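Re: the request from the purification team.
They wanted to know what the chain is likely to look like in 3D before they choose a buffer screen. I agreed to run a prediction and write the result into the notebook, where they can find it.
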Amino acid sequence: FFFQAEDGIRDTSVTGVQTCALPICSVVLSPAPLLVLEGVGAGDRAHAGFTTLLVWVEADPEVCRARTLARDGVEMEQHLTTWRIAEARHHHDESTRTRADVVVTTS
């Protein structure tokens, strides 16, 4: 079990904040019929062999920005801009949306 700061992009060129995953504890789980993983890296090609269904959820970027700033504060705006660039690059490199089995849009 890991706590991930920011949604898991491991890009050292962005900033140190979103590159850390801090182990909190080790938990052994029994197999379950369904396990849902979410986050930027959840749809990576490296996980494809373990993925039954890849869902891409797409929302209006301005709605996402407003929600994030409301939650985290306007002082995070520059960080958010940097994050969104890294996130877009990550999904482009991984072809996440293209490989998705289901695309859900909120508009």
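For the purification team: Confidence is low (pLDDT under 50) at residues 1-21.
Please add any questions underneath this entry.
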